[in-house]
Amino acid sequence: MKILLLGEYSNVHWTLACALRKLGHEVCVVSNGDEWKGYSADIPLVRQAGYFGSVAYVCKVLQLLPKLRGYDVVQLINPVHFIDLKAERGIRIYDYLRRHNKRVFLGAFGYDYYYVYDSVVRRTLRYCDFYTPTREVRHEWNTANEYDWLHTFKKESNIHIAETCDGIISGLYEYDIAYRSRFPEKTTFIPFPIELNGTSEGAQSSIGANRKIRFFIGVQRHRSALKGTDIMLRALERLVNDYPDRAEMVKAESVPFTQYKEMMRSSDVLLDQIYSYTPAMNALLAMSQGLVLVGGGEEENYAILGEEELRPIINVQPDEDDIYRQLEQLVLCPERIAQLKRDSITYIQRHHDSIKVAKRYLEAWRKK
Description:
Elements: E1 2-6, H1 12-22, E2 26-31, E3 43-44, H2 51-64, E4 73-76, H3 87-100, E5 103-108, H4 113-122, H5 140-151, H6 153-164, E6 167-170, H7 173-180, E7 187-189, E8 213-219, H8 229-242, E9 247-253, H9 257-265, E10 269-272, H10 281-288, E11 292-295, H11 299-305, E12 314-315, H12 320-332, H13 336-351, H14 354-367
Parallel strand pairs: 1-2, 1-4, 2-3, 4-5, 5-6, 6-7, 8-9, 8-10, 10-11, 11-12
Helix pairs in contact: 1-14, 3-6, 4-5, 8-12
């Protein structure tokens, strides 16, 4: 099968492409590398700032279009952000892809109109990026997302693509319910892919009496409020202050993906995304390396996977005191960590092995 993957979020498409190639398929990934994260692409399509950067980018896109024809499957990472153009122009690219390829699929992997509408207007979840049971979550990033997806042409673009594409692939429970309620026949849930590179050595080691537990947190400069990293960071700083002989913090601030992975490997516990019901790519990668995840692990996540046994995720509510209590329990009961590490790896092997995931994609693409 000849496959084109357009756009990138947290290495989803590149990881999927590597697995598909191992299965004998021809795959091309075209993306901007998810901006500063610098993920790999077969055809890098990066837009530079300024007027001349914009002109150069449009010229690149026009030159590239003839190469984006003749594929059996095209998948967009997002209804707008599969390409760095305004939605009014991006929709023309989508229509071109529809005319010149056999099937086009939409990825439900992040912010878009249906997710934002369900969050802001319908409030279908107990909590999310926009609210919790006790407070409204308001900062510049989600305010901008709310406006963009509900009050600009991004909304019309998303609706048009969802209604006319051949299928919709959702990667998390939150995104799945937003689309399944509207497009039940089109929507297929497939877990995110993680490349397995053998069992992590760290997963086999227990926390000795004289070793501190290393808590890892990634901070995107100027965007820490977006996923609740600011709240997690405060809870972690309190913990390290209260238990300086038992806990230490490893903080990665807006670093490239390769450096981020190196910093993470030496840690025991990852803190990631308090507003999510489910672990996304960053958290799944950490679990595959034997880190214990503190983040989103609601029962809905296990149910959509069909997982009845494993519960490796330390699920936290979007509340600083709850996060602190959960971290404190790990510090006070470090003997739990070795088993949680092993369960984390088993969880990834069972549900997120990129080869297994790629086979599910192939099945979904062929059915539609």
